[in-house]
Design brief:
By secondary structure, this protein is mostly beta strands. It is built from five helices and 38 strands. Helix content is 14%, strand content 40%. The protein has a 13-stranded parallel sheet with strand order 3-6-9-12-15-18-21-24-27-30-33-36-38. It has a twelve-stranded parallel sheet with strand order 5-8-11-14-17-20-23-26-29-32-35-37. An eleven-stranded parallel sheet has the order 4-7-10-13-16-19-22-25-28-31-34, with no helix packed on it. Helix 3 runs antiparallel to helix 4. It is elongated. The protein starts with a strand and ends with a strand.
Length: 290
């Protein structure tokens, strides 16, 4: 794809960026060559803007390893080893890494991000498709995924976590912001958020489930230890914890919100070591079976 000044101007670029283009590429430029030139000139934000305006290509970059100050590529990356980038990795297509991925500021991909090792971003982490890591996943700021997330180890996010599909984490899942999950949310260990946790389907954790606001699932919620929220606890079906279930002061515990009352005994059971003080709906069944 060749970009000339008419194409660029039609996208209403900033004045400084357009002046740079006219000084260096007034006769036009190949799309990826222009992205590379902007990155080489230290104009990474302009390169990201250009990619957001003109979108992805079918190009594929295949390398053994990738180490750079910044990478903005309109196609997909296939790296057999590791990715180590100081600031930004931004792609129009997917990112497939045989090893691990460490990026200082942000990782943004238009499609899947898959790594055989761990994925760590010093800022935001965004995948237009699935996000999968053979080890752990970490983002110092927000995390957004247009498909499923799978991490064989921990997942840690310094801000909100927003996922369209399912989340499956082998160990602990901890965020410093809210969790919004379109489908099911499963953690092998502890599940914790410093805001609300909401899942369109079910929520399950091998350890404690805890959040600083509301806890809500369209299906059931199950914890290997306790379920503790500072706001309300709401489940469309059953609630189960091997220790306690507790809502915040002044809030209630609700089970069976999406089940007819006649079916509560089998589909809206509430199990814990003691009956929740603020149980508002559901069928109290006592301690869960070991």
């Amino acid at each position: 794809m060749d970009l000339n000044k008419q194409f660029i101007k039609a996208k209403q670029p900033c004045a400084d960026g357009f002046r740079w283009f006219m000084r260096h590429h007034q006769d036009g430029s190949n799309y990826q060559d222009l992205l590379d030139a902007l990155v080489d000139a230290g104009r990474v934000s302009d390169a990201c803007w250009l990619l957001s305006q003109f979108g992805p290509t079918h190009a594929v970059m295949k390398v053994d390893a990738l180490a750079a100050e910044a990478v903005v590529f309109a196609g997909s990356l296939e790296v057999r080893g590791n990715i180590e980038v100081d600031t930004v990795v931004r792609t129009g297509g997917g990112i497939h890494v045989g090893g691990g991925m460490v990026v200082g500021q942000s990782i943004v991909s238009g499609d899947d991000i898959k790594a055989g090792g761990g994925i760590r971003s010093g800022g935001v982490l965004e995948a237009g498709g699935h996000l999968k890591a053979g080890w752990g996943i970490e983002a110092r700021e927000s995390m957004r995924c247009g498909g499923d997330i799978r991490s064989n180890w921990d997942l840690w996010c310094g801000g909100p976590l927003n996922v369209t599909g399912n989340v499956t984490v082998g160990q602990d899942l901890i965020t410093q912001g809210r969790i919004e999950c379109g489908k099911s949310l499963v953690a092998g260990g502890r599940l914790a958020a410093r805001d609300s946790i909401r899942a369109g389907h079910g929520i399950q954790a091998g350890g404690t489930i805890e959040c600083a606001m509301h806890l809500e699932a369209g299906w059931g919620i199950r914890a290997g230890r306790s379920i503790v929220a500072e706001g309300a606890v709401r489940a469309g079906e059953s609630l189960s914890a091997h220790e306690l279930i507790r809502a915040g002061v002044g809030y209630g515990v609700f089970a069976g919100l999406n089940v007819q009352m006649e079916a509560w005994e089998c589909s809206a059971r509430v199990c814990a070591d003691t009956k929740p003080v603020s149980l508002m709906s559901g069928w109290w069944a006592g301690a869960p079976e070991v």
